[in-house]
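Z., the sequence and structure:
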Amino acid sequence: MRIGIVSTFTPYRGGIAQFNDAMAQSLKQAGHNVHCTTWSRQYPALLFPGKTQFEPGKSIADASMPATLDSISPASWKRTGRDFGKQHNVDLLLLPFWHAALAPALTSVAKHAKQQGVRQVVAVMHNANSHDGKAWEAVLTKRFLGACDRVVTLSSHVSAKLKSWNPATLFHPQYEHFPKGPSSQEARRQLGLSEGDVAHLFFGLIRPYKGLGVLIDALRHLPSHHKLLVAGECYENWSVYQAQIDEHGLQDRVQLHLEFIPDNLVPVFMQACDNVVLPYLDASQSGVTALALHHEKRVVASDVGDLGTSIVPNLTGRLVPPDRPLALAEALSAPWHAQPADQAMAFRAVKDKFSWSAWATQLTQLVQSEAQ
């Protein structure tokens, strides 16, 4: 099958780019001819809250594929869509969605690709709308979905929100591209953790719906040898969290790394921690759970969205009610009694279930059945 993907790829930074890189690779490994196009300009600077949209030391000049799509240039939208029909002659065009600011461009790409004979345009929905989305964003999302032939989601939570579009529900595969990293002992040394410390890791962009404040509140109910690692760039006002840390006298128990964590350092944080914590107030799915699964780290997460799909209770993690600091503290402090062999078996089974090869197979079987 000839497959096109229009989206964010490296050298753009972050989980979406990594997801798309892995998706393209998995489809190629399955024997498909895959052509990818990325943005010459993704978010206008006015809409981007972070420091940079690119990996450290990289720019769009480092892209390994055409970077011809400009999010604010309608001419580039039309040209990109037409190219996938006339020049690349693809059977299937995949359009990942996660933020409505990009919906006008993707909507136009879909329409012009279909006009040039692309048989199936599939929306791959990470979210039902932008996180913290506004009403106008819902309108743009609806227009985008209307321009596509099929809707695929990565969680039942998103599928429920998009029920009227008859979505197919896949899953968020694990990430497999990260290096092995140092030993746990060496990683803990690098991060200044003592031998008796229990380290809980909050990883990724800091945004209101992710519930970091709940985790900080839970920490104050834990013994002093429980430490919190916060690793990720803050997309809101950090002073609110700092005031919370100061109020409860947790300054010596919270280690802050408030910047984007490059790929080569991700294994250090994963190897150093005892578990990964996702105290989300709301969620669809999370790339952080996929990351933890790859490193075989237990996850303690709020029971929201599909965060629990990769959690085998008391083996690969635990679920707690959202916005309940005491329940979260209890889950973080309760001993893990599972035998190492049982835990290893549970991780192997979950990793097989949520592999990229399984995802690629399910996607292609879905679109092929639709074409018949």
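The mean pLDDT is 93. The longest strand covers residues 33-41.

Let me know what you think.
H.
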